[in-house]
Design a protein that fits this description.
single chain, 32% strand, 4-stranded antiparallel β-sheet, mainly beta, globular, 389 residues
Length: 389
C-alpha cells in the first residue's frame, strides 16, 4: 500500500523526538478542547450521515481518487487499492446507482492519486499516485461529455509523488501541492493551465506534507488544508486565498489525521472533514471548518460511517449532498456509500390571531353614578417562534 511507505517513513523519523512533548501537550489540551468543541457545536443545526443502498456499487477499495464532474452531473471515482492489488477502473454515481464506465484508454493502475475539476477547461485533472513500484507524475484528463480519459503531454510537471493534494484554485484552475516522492515530502505548488503545469511561488507555503485533507470553499474561494504526513509537524490548519497561504490558529481543531476526506458543503457554509488515520487508529469523527470564526467544530452526528482512512468524498451539486465512498480500516476495505443529510429546517409555529376584545355596553341604572365597564378579557399570548438550531 502506498500509504504504508509514507506512514512508516514518517513514524520512524518522528516517534522518538515527539513522544515526550506530544504526550504532555495531549494532557494539557484535552479538557479545553473538549469544552470548546461542545460549546461551538451548540451553534449549529446538526446534519447526519445516512447510508445509501445504491445499485451496482464498485468493489471495496481505499485510496481512490474521487470528485464531482459538473459536465456529466455525476461523481467520478477512479482506481485505488483493494485486497489483491492496484486498480484502474472508472465509475460514476448518479444518486441512485454506480455504473462502471468502459473507456478506450485509462490511467495505469494506482492508489493515492488525486483529482479535481478544472472549471476553465471543464475537465477533471488527475495526477500522481503509487503503483506498487513507482511514484507517478503523469497527468490525465477526464472529459465528462465523451466519458473518456486522455493522457496529457505537458512540458513541465510536478515531481512524481504519492498522496498529493489536488484542489480547485480560486481562479477555477486545478492546483497541486506537496506529496511524497519516496524520500522527501514536497512543498512545491503547481497550477494546470490546460496544457502544461506552471510552478507557483506564493510568499508563504505550508510545511511539506502528503495525504492531507484539502477542500475549497467555492462560495468564498478559500482553500482549507489540514493534517497529513510529514517530517515537520503537520498538525495545523492552512488556508489559501489564491495568492498566499496563511497558517491559522483555530481555538479547536481535529486530532491529527492523515488520509482523511474533505469536501465543501454549501448548506453548512463550510468544509466538512471526516475520518482519517491517527497513529494507526482510524477515526469516524465529522468536523466543520467555519471560515468566519476561523475554527473547527466537531459535529455531533447521530449516525456515522464506520471509522476509516483513504475514503473518497465529494460534494454532489446535483444531489446537494456530500457523498462518501470506500476506504479501509484495520479489518479490511469498504464499498459502502453514505450521504451527509442537512439538518431539517425548523417549521415556525404560526402566531395565533388574537380574539377581538368585546366592548360591553353598561346597563343604565337609576343611580347618578354610572356602572363600571366590564374588565376586558386579556389577549392571548402568541406562542414563541422556535429558534433555529
Amino acid at each position: 500500500m502506498p500509504v504504508e511507505h509514507l506512514k512508516s517513513y514518517w513514524m520512524k523519523l518522528t516517534q522518538i523526538r515527539r513522544f515526550g512533548h506530544v504526550f504532555v501537550a495531549l494532557i494539557c489540551c484535552c479538557i479545553p478542547v473538549a469544552f470548546a468543541s461542545s460549546a461551538a457545536a451548540a451553534h449549529f443545526s446538526l446534519p447526519d450521515w445516512s447510508e445509501l443502498s445504491p445499485n451496482n456499487p464498485p468493489p471495496a477499495r481505499s485510496y481512490l481518487a474521487m470528485t464531482y464532474d459538473p459536465v456529466s452531473g455525476k461523481i467520478i471515482a477512479f482506481g485505488g487499492f483493494d485486497s489483491t492489488g492496484y486498480l484502474n477502473d472508472t465509475w460514476s454515481f448518479d444518486g441512485t446507482g454506480w455504473a462502471q464506465i468502459s473507456t478506450q484508454s485509462a490511467p495505469p493502475a494506482r492508489a493515492a492519486a488525486q483529482m479535481t475539476y478544472d472549471s476553465v477547461t471543464q475537465k477533471i485533472v488527475l495526477f500522481g499516485g503509487y503503483d506498487g513500484t513507482n511514484y507517478l507524475g503523469d497527468t490525465w484528463l477526464w472529459d465528462g461529455s465523451t466519458l473518456q480519459w486522455t493522457q496529457a503531454t505537458p512540458q513541465h510537471h510536478p515531481p512524481a509523488v504519492t498522496g498529493p493534494m489536488l484542489f480547485p484554485d480560486p481562479n477555477g484552475r486545478a492546483d497541486v501541492f506537496g506529496g511524497f516522492d519516496g524520500q522527501f515530502y514536497q512543498l512545491t505548488m503547481w497550477q494546470w493551465n490546460g496544457s502544461d503545469w506552471t510552478q507557483l511561488s506564493p510568499p508563504t507555503v505550508p510545511f511539506a506534507r502528503a495525504s492531507a485533507a484539502v477542500a475549497t470553499n467555492t462560495s468564498t474561494g478559500q482553500v482549507v488544508m489540514f493534517g497529513g504526513l510529514a517530517d515537520v509537524n503537520p498538525n495545523n490548519t492552512w488556508t489559501y486565498d489564491g495568492t498566499t497561504w496563511t497558517l491559522q490558529s483555530p481555538a479547536v481543531q481535529p486530532l491529527l489525521v492523515y488520509a482523511a476526506s474533505a469536501a465543501f458543503d454549501p448548506s453548512l457554509e463550510g468544509v466538512v472533514l471526516f475520518g482519517g488515520g491517527s497513529g494507526g487508529v482510524d477515526q469516524n469523527t465529522t468536523w466543520l471548518w467555519d471560515q468566519v470564526g476561523a475554527t473547527w467544530t466537531q459535529l455531533s452526528i447521530a449516525h456515522s460511517p464506520p471509522a476509516r482512512e483513504g475514503a473518497g468524498m465529494s460534494y454532489d451539486a446535483a444531489l446537494h449532498r456530500v457523498i462518501l465512498f470506500g476506504g479501509q480500516d484495520n479489518n479490511g476495505y469498504f464499498n459502502d456509500t453514505w450521504e451527509l443529510v442537512p439538518a431539517p429546517t425548523p417549521t415556525p409555529t404560526p402566531t395565533p390571531t388574537p380574539s377581538p376584545t368585546a366592548t360591553l355596553t353598561p346597563t343604565p341604572t337609576p343611580s347618578v353614578t354610572p356602572a363600571p365597564r366590564a374588565t376586558p378579557r386579556p389577549r392571548p399570548t402568541p406562542h414563541p417562534r422556535p429558534t433555529p438550531q
